[in-house]
TrEMBL record:
Compartments (UniProt record): Cell membrane
Domain of life: Bacteria
GO CC annotation: plasma membrane
GO BP, one annotated term: transmembrane transport
Residue ranges crossing the lipid bilayer per the database entry: 24-47, 59-79, 91-107, 143-167, 173-198, 205-226, 271-290, 302-320
CDD domains: TM_PBP2
Family affiliation: Belongs to the binding-protein-dependent transport system permease family.
Protein known as: NitT/TauT family transport system permease protein
Entry keywords, A to Z: Cell membrane, Membrane, Transmembrane, Transmembrane helix, Transport
Protein species of origin: Tepidimicrobium xylanilyticum
Keyword match Transmembrane: yes
Membrane topology: Multi-pass membrane protein
Length: 335
């Protein structure tokens, strides 16, 4: 799959070869998110609310910020072909987001087709998140502490296990059966057992998260080392390399793309295990907050926590992907 950078370069070349009418169409498409945003803002402010439904200006400011962002993106693209190519590529999706928000607002706040308390309009969700921001931030902190504690423990153990199993046939003999046994079973399946055995809910949740990460990292590391060309090891041995050097200088660098991919997959597994563990046992965190607010029918706060979870996990995975691209930049340049 081509990355965004390659797509952008291709789009720049296409833009330069297009006719005048095609270029005008591209500018209209690039400007469409701003136009859809303005239409949505007018709908929110001018269309009367249904019944006793009320709204504040909070969501209007939020939409205004989004409109300003995409408009400055468009202005920047007028003098920079690379920025314009990116905006042209992303503009249909941005427009769809504004259309989706407008449709949801119309079905809830404006017409009442989707009723409270199950479907609060976005203005209610934003205000609920702001009103409970201190508690939500504390839950985010506790969730991240739990997430990264389990993630790093699982990643370190998985890396060690994967290296030993991938490089040593005797270790692989003992590890492979456990990989086949635990592989098809989601780590969250063990929550009822672990929560009873563990000395604390936090330690039990850490174990569940670490277990899923361990499997992903071990499998990816082991596979990466197995795929290393044996000629590299033979050449290194001929030059007098020791076993530790074969691992650190040959096996690990060659298996690095697989290892990093395993770390990203492990984070996805960790995020899933985190939410399930928090909902079932842990006494703090975003998953616990969602269950708590749902039990009191506070759906606005529940949706606010869900949105924060999505944003948090997107940022975490984005950082890991950036790290992967930076570390193995040499591989992309070669290919």
């Amino acid at each position: 799959m081509e990355n965004v950078q390659n797509l952008t370069r291709e789009d720049i070349l296409k833009l330069e070869a297009k006719s005048k009418s095609e270029k005008i169409l591209d500018y209209i498409i690039a400007l469409s998110p701003t136009l859809f945003g303005i239409i949505h803002l007018l709908e929110y402010l001018l269309v009367p609310n249904y019944g006793i439904n009320k709204h504040t200006t909070t969501y209007a400011y939020f939409i205004g910020l989004l409109i300003t962002g995409v408009f400055f993106f468009f202005i920047g693209g007028l003098s920079n072909k690379k920025i314009f190519a990116k905006l042209r590529f992303k503009a249909p999706f941005y427009s769809f987001v504004f259309l989706l928000l407008m449709t949801y607002d119309y079905l809830t706040l404006k017409t009442g087709i989707l009723i409270l308390p199950y479907f609060p309009w976005v203005d209610l969700v934003i205000n609920a998140a702001w009103a409970d921001r201190v508690y939500l931030l504390d839950c985010v902190k506790n969730s991240l502490i739990l997430l990264f504690t389990g993630y790093f423990i699982g990643a370190i153990i998985g890396l060690v296990t994967g290296i030993l199993s991938g490089y040593n046939k005797k270790v692989h003999y003992w590890i492979a059966p456990f990989m086949k046994l635990l592989g098809p079973i989601p780590s969250t399946t063990w929550i009822p057992v672990v929560m009873v055995i563990a000395s604390s809910l936090f330690k039990g949740a850490v174990f569940i998260i670490a277990l899923g990460v361990w499997f992903s990292v071990t499998l990816a590391t082991m596979t990466g080392i197995h795929n290393v060309n044996n000629d590299y090891f033979d050449a290194a041995k001929t030059l007098g390399a020791k076993n530790t050097q074969l691992v650190t200088r040959i096996a690990l660098p060659a298996a690095l793309p697989n290892i990093l991919q395993g770390l990203i997959q492990g984070m996805s597994s960790a995020c899933t295990a985190l939410l399930v563990a928090e909902m079932l046992g842990v006494e703090s965190g975003l998953g616990w907050y969602i269950s708590w607010q749902k039990s009191w029918a506070e759906y606005s706060k529940m949706y606010a926590a869900i949105i924060i979870i999505c944003i948090t996990f997107i940022i975490v995975n984005w950082i890991l992907t950036k790290v992967k691209r930076t570390v193995i930049k040499w591989k992309e340049e070669v290919t």
